[in-house]
Structures are given as structure tokens and as C-alpha cells.
């Protein structure tokens, strides 16, 4: 009973942290540029995860044949994923961003069907269609125009599609390395990829302005809580309750984000937005009812969860 309580407490806390991460990013973005936020977040996360793996003695030697896969992994996420999500959140509300990002499991499942030839149940296909219908309800007005900026929508969809490519690549690595080690390696490569962008576009801006301590705390919170703590809590929960149940909790992130965005920032949703969000979540549940797709399910443990 105590074990179950700890597991449900851990998964709930992870969902709350990931919900707040959309709000923290919006707040940090008022002072820092997206590339600065992402690069700083990756560097801090690399340091923290390295300390964690050193304490737990869980470092692993990477096989020579896996270097290419790790490079591809990092290009998809965090590189393209963070570019899409970070810049996309500059054009939409925290809640709208969380709703669109929540469709990652759906798009990742489509990618698994097309590339990995994974077999799905009829209810999974129905869930995929329902999720996209919910997105349309959320982002379209009655006259058919968008309720959010097209730039934000396209950038967030870049993040979602990148997560799908990440999932396919990751399915070839799961089982060989621990989840935390995979996140560390991809973040190291991601930081290297973002370094030139930071030096070219943002370094002068950072140097020429006084260092704002409180906004930087939001960046540190993103790295410590969202990238490290929440993921470790999620991985712990998966080990105890399984990936299917854990991912079911993930579907509630848009709801938590909407609640916190209302409490902290006064964001208000229309009835149409609420209906669209509800339809998306129903579709997500249906799309994840498990068939015979073990490798894909294991890969979804990390997809979209390392940001």
C-alpha cells in the first residue's frame, strides 16, 4: 500500500512539474531569448544528471555502433524539438502549447505504424482521428479562422513531428541503456548543437544586459525540475506501474497547465477551447490502448518527456 502511494505521488508530482514547465518557459521568455533558455537549460541538466549518475554509479559505455543513433536522437530531441517548442511558445498561450505538445504520443504512434510497421487496434486508429479532431476544435473559430497564430502552431508541430522521429530512433536503443543515461547523452550532444547558435545569436545580448537573477531562476527550475526531477519521477513510476498507466497520467498535463495558467497568469479558456482539450485527451487515451507494440511503448517513456 505504501509503495502504491509513493508511486502515485511520484507520477502526480511529475505531471504537475511538466504542466508548470510551460508557464515557467513563458515567464523566462519575457527576459531571455529562446536559444539562451534552451542552451542554459541543457547545460544545467547535463551537470545535474552527471552528478545523479555518478552517485548511483549508473554510467554506461556507449557501443560504437550506437554513436550514430545517439547523434540522430539528439538532432530530433532536444535540437529540433526545443527549437519548435521554445519559439512556438512565444506565439501561443501556455495552455495552447501544452495541448498541441500533448499530441506527441499520437504522432509518434503514426510514425511507428509507417516506419516500424507496428500493428494497432481499431480503437487506436479511432483515438488518433479523435485527437486531431480535438485539436481542430481547439484552434479554429466558428468561421474557420485560427484562434492561435499560424507561426506558433507550425513551430509546435515541428516539435511534435521531431518527437515522432525521436521515438522511432529511440526504439532501437531502449533496453541497452538506462533512461537517465540516454537523456544525459542526448542533452550533451544537444548542448553542443546549440552552442554555435548561442554564440552567434544570443551571446552579445546576454553580455550587453545586466544579469537578471530572478528570471534565470525560471531557467534553472526548467532544468532541475522539468528535465531532471520530473523525468526521474516518471521513470520511477513506470518501473512500478508500467508505461501504459503512466502515459495515461501524461494525458492530464494540458488540464493541469490550464489550471495553473489560470491561477498564476489569469489565462482564461473559452468553452470551445475546453471542449477541444477534452476531445484531445479522450483521443489520447484511446490511441494508447496497448496492442503488441512493446518497443514503441518503451520508447514513449522518453518521447517528449525529456523537455
SSE topology:
Blueprint: H1 2-28, H2 34-56, H3 67-88, H4 94-101, H5 104-116, H6 122-139, H7 150-170, H8 179-208, H9 213-241, H10 243-250, H11 253-265, H12 271-287, H13 294-300
Describe this structure in words.
The chain is an all-alpha fold and 307 residues long. It has one domain (2-300). 77% of the residues lie in helices and 0% in strands. The protein contains 13 helices and no strands. The longest helix is centred in the middle third of the chain and has 30 residues, at 179-208. The two termini are 31 Å apart.
Low-confidence segments: none
What's the quaternary structure here? single chain
Number of strands: 0
Report how far apart the termini are: 31 Å
**Strand portion:** under 5%
Helical amount among residues, as a percent range? over 70%
Which radius of gyration do the C-alpha atoms yield? 19 Å
**How many structural domains can be distinguished in the coordinates?**
1
Can you write the helix and strand succession as a string?
HHHHHHHHHHHHH
* Average pLDDT level: 89
Main pleated-sheet profile: none
- Output the number of helix runs: 13
- What is the molecular shape? globular
Structural class: mainly alpha
